[in-house]
Amino acid sequence: MPRKKVRKRRVSKPRRKATRRRKIPKVATHEERVEHFAEEMGRLGERAASRARQGGVKRLYRSGREKILGGVCGGIAEYFRVDPTLVRLLWILFSLAGGAGVLLYIIAWIIIPRTPRHMW
User: Using CA atoms, how far apart are residues 109 and 114, in angstroms rounded to an integer?
Assistant: First the structure.
């Protein structure tokens, strides 16, 4: 009796789920990049011009708004643009760790001038 040919069944691979199409970001043209660069340079130029009008140098003053004792920590916070509470906490930790913090605060209180634009 002749043998029957047995067909092998192909096992199909599981289908991948349809994925969402991602939005392809727009590639900026050369002109758009130049315009963006010019805008950024204009902003930087405005900052430099305003700083030049103010004397050109960033000055450290004792704060009149953020003052608890003498405004030293508030002034340092305004100078570095951070929260005054953070500066006060660091100053207290420095005072407790080294012990010279109170003396340095008094010296800073004497040396650092008051803010001229705030009424005391």
Answer: 9
The amino acid at residue 87 is: V
Residue 52 structural domain? 30-57
Q: Are both 94 and 43 inside the same structural domain? A: no
Name the token pair of 15: 């289908």
Structure tokens at 34: 């130049």
Number of domains within the chain: 2
Task: List the chain pLDDT tens, one digit each, 120 residues.
Answer: 667 776 666 666 666 666 666 666 666 677 777 677 667 766 666 665 566 556 667 788 888 887 788 889 999 998 898 999 999 999 998 888 877 888 888 999 999 998 877 665
CB 61 within 8 A of CB 113: yes
